[in-house]
Design goal:
Rossmann fold; three-stranded parallel β-sheet; five-stranded parallel β-sheet; 221 residues; 9 helices; alpha/beta; 2 domains
Length: 221
């Protein structure tokens, strides 16, 4: 529908695990083909915070590593790192936490893709990158710069792609609503995710509320 109208759009995710191509594969499984060029991830925003040629310790999955390589960063170990980039990974362990801590304590810049404490899975909630960030921040005694929603780096990335006016559609006021505020966009809340009709009102207050994305787009267009 958006394509037929010639509207600009993006799929913006805090997930740092997948590459844009992998996110596009997931969207294709939901009936949305050819979406890779429209995908924006927190890994891409984190990579944009790093100067090409920077030496980066990546504690994360393919999405973060790939974004840093595409940016022109050099992937190094803790002893050489100028930057520690932390994104969600099931391989996070005591050794990874130690490496990140030591690099940060030695002066490396600390960047996290996002600080979401949890994320949903088919079997229920799983610990999110925010849990990993909290562990590293505690032992390194340094708070990270956060790239993803609702923070400034990904907002700047989206505005560069889509412009200064738009609508942020999401189901989480604490991320999507605040992200809309960071963007200067209207917030449209869909009730098909974590928020239902019985949870209203929410803060920040959405300008638009709809049962699902399709209903919302019909109303907006």
């Amino acid at each position: 529908m958006l394509r037929r109208r010639g509207a600009e759009f993006a799929f913006v995710t805090n997930s740092a695990a997948r590459t844009p191509a992998q996110v596009a594969q997931k969207l294709a499984a939901h009936g949305i083909p050819d979406a890779e060029a429209h995908v924006i991830t927190s890994s891409m925003a984190a990579a944009a915070m790093v100067e090409p040629g920077s030496r980066v310790l990546v504690v994360g999955s393919d999405g973060l590593r790939g974004a840093m390589i595409e940016r022109g960063a050099e992937i190094v170990d803790a002893a050489e790192a100028e930057v520690v980039a932390l994104g969600i990974t099931p391989d996070f362990d005591y050794a990874a936490m130690t490496a990140a801590m030591r690099a940060i304590r030695s002066g490396a810049r600390f960047i996290a893709t996002n600080d979401d404490a949890t994320f949903p899975d088919a079997d229920g909630l799983l610990p999110g990158n925010g849990a990993l960030v909290a562990a590293v921040a505690a032992c390194a005694e340094q708070a990270p710069e956060i790239a993803g929603k609702p923070h400034t780096p990904i907002a700047a990335f989206v505005r560069e792609r889509l412009g200064d006016d738009g609508v942020m559609i999401g189901d989480r006021p604490e991320t999507d609503g605040l992200f809309a505020r960071s963007l200067g966009y209207d917030f449209a809340l869909v009730l098909s995710g974590v928020i239902g009709p019985d949870d209203l009102p929410v803060e920040p207050a959405p300008r638009f509320v709809a049962d699902d994305i399709l209903t919302l787009l019909h109303d907006l267009l």
